[in-house]
Amino acid sequence: MEIYEKIKNRRKELGLTDVEVSKRIGFQEFSEYMDVEFNDNEITDVWAIKNVKVLCRILKFDYFDLFDSKCAFCENDEIYLEEYKLPRNELLIKKRMDLGLSQMDLGDKVGWDIGPLEKSDREFDESPIMEMTDIINKIKVPIQILYGAKCKKCGR
Predict the structure, then answer these.
(1) What is the 3-state secondary structure (H, E, C) of 111-150?
(2) pLDDT above 90 for 82
(3) How many CA atoms lie within 13 A of 7 on its CB side?
(4) Overall number of domains in the chain
(5) Is the pTM of this model over 0.70?
(6) CA 15 to chain CA centroid, nearest Å
(7) 39 is in which domain, residue-wise?
(8) Residue 47 and residue 97 in one domain
(9) Shared-domain flag, residues 62 and 90
């Protein structure tokens, strides 16, 4: 099932209207919400992570269920590195420096200015998941770390 179908079906299962969900997320325009029920890539390419997290709370989804994702650590056997405990902005700086890249170099590789992400951990939640995917492909950190998702099984 596509993500947009999961969202729409769950909303209906919970007896919520699309207008209710839109308001609870905090959108000013109803269309900001409706796009996610009709376009599969809207939630990853356009929505800020903070809005995805609110939607998940409202619809009682977790990251792994909504995106049909597996935990990198307990299901994909990746090693949980101690550095993953760092705030996301500090982790990004460390990984970038480990690769010998300047802020501008990494920005060029992902196609946008990463400066705001390095200033504050909160900036990650202002970005779409797709931007996190671009960074992950360069710095090799599991998406659940940069997204801020915790696995129910292993707690990581």
Answers:
(1) CCCCHHHHHCHHHHHHCEHHHHHHHHHHHCCCHHHHHCCC
(2) yes
(3) 26
(4) 2
(5) yes
(6) 26
(7) 3-66
(8) no
(9) no
Q: Which two tokens stand for residue 108?
A: 């060029």
Structure tokens at 72: 């990198």
Query: Could you tell me the pLDDT band of residue 40, with boundaries at 50, 70 and 90?
Result: confident
Contacts of 94 (CB under 8 A, 6+ apart): 83, 86
CB 29 within 8 A of CB 106: no
The rounded distance, in Å, linking the Cα atoms of 15 and 124 is 31
Backbone angles phi, psi at 72, to 5 degrees: -65, -25
Sequence-distant (6+) residues with CB within 8 A of 133 are 44, 143
**Which pair of structure tokens corresponds to residue 146?**
């940069």
Q: How far apart are CA 134 and CA 111, in angstroms?
A: 9
Alpha helices, DSSP H, located in 26-140: 30-38, 42-45, 49-59, 63-66, 88-98, 103-110, 115-119, 129-139
The set of residues, in sequence order, having a beta carbon less than 8 Å from that of 47 and lying 6+ positions away, is: 36, 55, 128, 129
Q: What percent of the chain has pLDDT over 90?
A: 89
Instruction: Provide the b/e sequence for 11-32 (b: ≥16 CB within 10 Å).
Output: beeeeeebeebbeebebeeeeb
